[in-house]
Amino acid sequence: MFNGDIDVSEDILKLCDVVIISFHGFPPVKEEQINALKKMLKNPEVDIWGHPATMLRNCELNRKEMEDIINLCIRNKVLIENNLCPKYETPPDFLKLAGKLGAKTVIGSDAHSVWGLRKMI
How many structural domains is the chain composed of? Predict the structure, then answer.
């Protein structure tokens, strides 16, 4: 379940220009969570790590662990989402470290429709 696979069919993936991956469930042990994230970040289908705050809050990574994950994003050309929705707001210290290390970020909204985007304005 947490081996880096995406739970979307190959047919759907072929239709996607950009693939954003988010965790909505976690293994019970911190090391398993980190391993699942690292495997996901190595998946060549993944373009953006969405909702990183859910993992960061659930796992409470130390600085070395954050650096390792950010560097993995850089090596695999995975963008890190900076989500504007308060529920998924990426911690500022993580974003600052990501910027310092040279990771690329993308702004997200957690909007699931055009109406949701308009609501952000």
Answer: 1
Closest CA to 22 of 47, 42, 49, 3: 49
Measured at the alpha carbon of residue 86, what is the angle toward residues 82 and 91, in degrees to the nearest 5? 50
For residue range 36-81, what is the model confidence (pLDDT) as tens digits? 899 999 999 999 999 898 888 878 889 999 999 999 999 999 999 9
Domain of 50, CATH number, reads 3.20.20.140
Write the CA distances from 55 to 3, 25, 67, 94, integer angstroms: 16, 9, 14, 12
27 within some domain: no
What pTM was estimated for this model as a whole?
Answer: 0.87
